[in-house]
């Protein structure tokens, strides 16, 4: 059935210009800003999103001076020589009918550089460097640098700028007493502390004139102690409007806040209530954000009056044609962002080029292409996990005749296990997308079909892509075959009912997932219930608490089981988890009082339980069950016989490398192999 999204697709009149719809592509640093030939690649990246129908695009953060750069070689716009590079981007966007604003971001004490500056000499908990406090003249110079940067952006043909005033960067640092201890005109009372952002916006408006978009990214929920009160936020919003802003965008949480705001375990649209509360306090459009990843969610938020616009960054990384597909009644073809952070934010914070787990072409538009094949080939893909699904659908999209074989009764592979983990329900969306692509591009799907090498030879396939995945590694100790012991695959696939006390062997990503699964009431997962989520993390929905959290005690749901998460290593549990999400998983299990045991040797399992040895001696964990999450082995039994038959074989995904299960690598491998044959 065709669905329409009238609110999301409604034009927005800004007075001097009109946006074609209510979708803003939120700012995200990609790493292309500093890459060789990066501006040409960014032109393809942003140009593709403009062609995909986005109403307004905001670039990744660009520093207004050398002190504001997030790292020593990060992008800046400080002189006319740099204008020409930016014109490559703006031209591509305008040629595709879009509008684009450049975000001006001064990192302040978040700059990973010894040259960092801030309102006061207070070190950030997420940075090794301590900032130098800006002198009075330095503050005034920084304001002028913002204005100069905006004027240069105008010369580069940007339609406007976004002033980054949230997430704990420099402007945020001036606003709160958490980071501003100054006694001069830029510190002290709230009215004095907010003069810094007000003077920036006022100066930019005077320099660029009336017909230039100024978005101000306002931190509406700091999520740090000594953050702003709601009354202060409203006061700042009014002052920013008076200073000349066109749109106020919502910022949620400082980077140092220990509360998840955009990861997959955060409920969809969890923070739009904050923007809704500001409605009516100002007359300019308000944009809301965070975990809005489908047109249905966007439409609901807008139709219920929570905001005038929707900001989506990662969903447009996942699918450049998000808006166009929604507009054309093809929402079921949208490749939905699953909020994993593995290829976007984790890459950005590690200094790598950002991309997307479900869309490896993101930020690689000029390098990974799905050109039509010159010669259509007959292709067999063995295994319908993430790697095989990517390979089969891309190959078929390019015009190849594709047979996709799967030994189980459904597509998905390890995703069918992952989707059952509380907080990972978005994996259902990825499987929905691949199902649609299989049908759209005419992939012949053969379920419950375990192939043989002879069958591949008889089928006269030009190419065979082996995506046969992994199987659990079975540890070797007495009692591993005891009735108490089950594998994680058996637990999740068959939804086995376990006792009230469970030991999990292996504390990698799968071990953490299993521990989450075992301790959560699956009918009341906080990732699906905004109120439960807010209670778990101690967020005041009424916004009476300073910073949204001060004095609020977190109320995590009680664990439904007693779980021991065991590992042989003596290092921190979950050390190999994602850079931006690992701390969340550790905190969640800490809330559930999961016992983290390290340096464990496994002696045996018997009726009494799991017998282990640690540094302090032997112990018995008197558990009802033991779940094995002790690694995987590649399944590639057919490879040798197929190669002996002179078949052209490509091994991808877990069949290639079975270390920690890695969907990012699997989907990328499948995409690249399919794009090359």
UniProtKB/TrEMBL annotation:
Keyword RNA-binding belongs to the record: no
Gene3D superfamilies: Aldolase class I (3.20.20.70), FAD/NAD(P)-binding domain (3.50.50.60), NAD(P)-binding Rossmann-like Domain (3.40.50.720)
GO MF annotations, alphabetized: FMN binding; iron-sulfur cluster binding; metal ion binding; oxidoreductase activity
NADH:flavin oxidoreductase/NADH oxidase N-terminal domain span: 8-333
Cofactors (names): FMN; [4Fe-4S] cluster
FAD/NAD(P)-binding domain: residues covered: 377-641
Membership in a protein family: In the N-terminal section; belongs to the NADH:flavin oxidoreductase/NADH oxidase family.
UniProt protein name: 2,4-dienoyl-CoA reductase
Species in which this protein is naturally found: Pseudobacteriovorax antillogorgiicola
